[in-house]
Amino acid sequence: MRIFLTLLICFCSISGFSQDQLEQCTTPIYDEYFHLPHGLNGYFDFEQGLACSKESNKPNLVCFVGHLSVNSRKMEAYVWSDPEILKLLREKFIITALYTDDKSQLLQEKQIKSKINGKLLKRIGDKALYYQELKFKGNSQPAYFIMNSKEELLAEPYFYDLSIDSYKKFLEKGLKNFK
């Protein structure tokens, strides 16, 4: 058994997966398009992140971001890079990053019909923005929501603010309310 696990870890290291990712449910959908900063692992599909949150018994940090959002990049560069924040994100949360401005096609089985205007949502960004508007009543980026696997919010939403202390309090409140 030890030999098998050693081989599996070696294979994953060579193929680009980290050991942390092995513990994170299934391989993320759309990981060929997206990557989280600072070596973090996560998901890029709302339903998959939610399922992993349930399976791993960790809160889900849902991040609405944009490729072209300067403020999203600043949050990642200045706040997420803090060692304490990074440790919390890496060890205590499932991260689901939803890119609201992405033009890539959704997998056909992931396409949904909008309850707002009845249109079929065929692009990753359209579906992400739809979820943000429908579930969270807003459409600004970056926006961060901590929820459990029942889609219940565990802390007040967090919007663009480069205060490391404020973001840490946000994460800690979500963790406290998760337990």
Question: Layout of helices and strands, plus pairs?
Answer:
Blueprint: H1 2-15, H2 19-22, H3 46-56, E1 60-65, H4 70-79, H5 83-92, E2 94-99, E3 112-113, E4 120-121, H6 124-136, E5 143-147, E6 158-159, H7 164-178
Parallel strand pairs: 1-2
Antiparallel strand pairs: 1-5, 3-4, 5-6
Written account of the structure:
- This protein is of the alpha+beta class.
- It is 43% helix and 13% strand.
- It contains seven helices and six strands.
- It has helices at residues 2-15, 19-22, 46-56, 70-79, 83-92, 124-136, 164-178, and strands at 60-65, 94-99, 112-113, 120-121, 143-147, 158-159.
- The strands form two sheets. A four-stranded mixed β-sheet has the order 2-1-5-6, with helices on both faces. The protein has a two-stranded antiparallel sheet with strand order 3-4.
- Helix 5 (83-92) runs parallel beside helix 7 (164-178).
- The longest helix has 15 residues, at 164-178.
- The chain starts with a helix and ends with a helix.
Distance between the termini: 34 Å
Proportion of β residues?
Answer: 5-15%
Order of helices and strands: HHHEHHEEEHEEH
Based on Cα principal axes, name the global outline.
globular
Name the poorly predicted regions. Answer: 1-22
Describe the sheet with the most strands.
4 strands, mixed
In which order are the strands of the major sheet placed?
Answer: 2-1-5-6
Quick take:
This protein has 179 residues and is an alpha+beta fold. The chain has seven helices and six strands; from the N terminus they run αααβααβββαββα.
What key phrases describe this protein's structure?
alpha+beta; disordered N terminus; two-stranded antiparallel ribbon
